[in-house]
Structure formats: structure tokens, C-alpha cells
Amino acid sequence: MPTSRKEALMIGASHYFTGKPCKNGHLVPRHVSGNCPECLKQAHRRRTEDYAAWILKAKQANAKARGIEFSLQQKDIVIPDKCPVLGIPLKKSISKGDAGNSPSIDRVDPSKGYTPDNIRIISHRANRKKQDCTVEELRLLLAYMES
What does the pLDDT read at residue 118? Predict the structure, then answer.
């Protein structure tokens, strides 16, 4: 196994082992991305265990960067078992493979901010589909698909 990231990249390996622990003390081979796989697993576990806090923090940062009002608290994030739009089971996951089934904060009125009276929790898939469409555009799309 390569002993440096540079060496791993040169030979096309996905991992390398330095023999030194990561900053959190894990002595395991690292991904060529430089990340410790054990640290990534622990971060994933924390995020999925307290998904509401994680999604809230992410949306708060997003709102701040975009200058959008944000007054949500963790108690405002109630994740249903199924998406109220598509009826698919919601899976609290941060991996890209499960993104469509993951819970997502939807702003009912996109011109308003993230406030308790302006959000719903729906699937990421449903939220993506309505992201930049008007109701009229969705009607036209439906008519096209049904024809």
C-alpha cells in the first residue's frame, strides 16, 4: 500500500497508509481525498442520528449566504415518515445515493424566508422538482406528459 497521498495518486490507488494517526487518533488507511474513513463514518453517524439539527444548520448557513430570513428552531423541523408530496418513505441519510428520499426543507412561498409558517418537510426529490417551476409551468408539464 502506498505510504503517501502523492504516491497513491501516481499509481491510481484509492487509499494510502502513512502509519500515523489522523487528528482524532484513528490509525487507518486514508482515502486519497485525504480524509480518514473512520472520521467520515463518525460524522455520517452524527448527522443521521440528529438529522433535524444537521439540516437546520445547513439551511441556516444557506440562508445567511443568500440574505434570506431565517427564524427556524430545531422544534420546527418535524420529519414525517413519508414525503407528503410523493408518498415515498423518507430516509435520514446524507449520502448522495439516497438524496431523493432524504428529508428536505421546502419553502412554501419561495419569496419568503425560512420561517416556521413558511416551511414543510418533503423529500429532496419533490423539492428539486418544484425548485424553479411555477404552478402554471407544472400544469403545462403535466399536460405534456399525459398527452
Answer: 96
- The pair phi, psi for residue 141, each rounded to 5°, is -65, -45
Q: Please give the domain boundaries of the chain with CATH numbers for all domains.
A: 5-43 (no CATH), 53-146 (3.30.40.220)
On whether the CB atoms of residues 121 and 85 are closer than 8 A, the answer is no
Enter the pTM of the model. 0.66
CA distance readout (Å), 58 to 17, 27, 94, 102 = 32, 30, 12, 14
pLDDT digits (tens, 9 = 90+) for 68-98: 999 999 899 999 999 999 999 998 766 655 5
Residues of the chain with pLDDT under 50: none
Query: Which residue blocks in the chain are alpha helix, DSSP H?
Result: 5-11, 37-49, 51-66, 124-130, 135-146
Predicted local confidence at residue 94, as pLDDT: 61
Q: Comparing C-alpha atoms, which of 72, 60, 106 is closest to residue 86?
A: 106
Q: How far apart are the first and last CA of the chain?
A: 58
Which triple of cell numbers denotes residue 56? Answer: 437546520
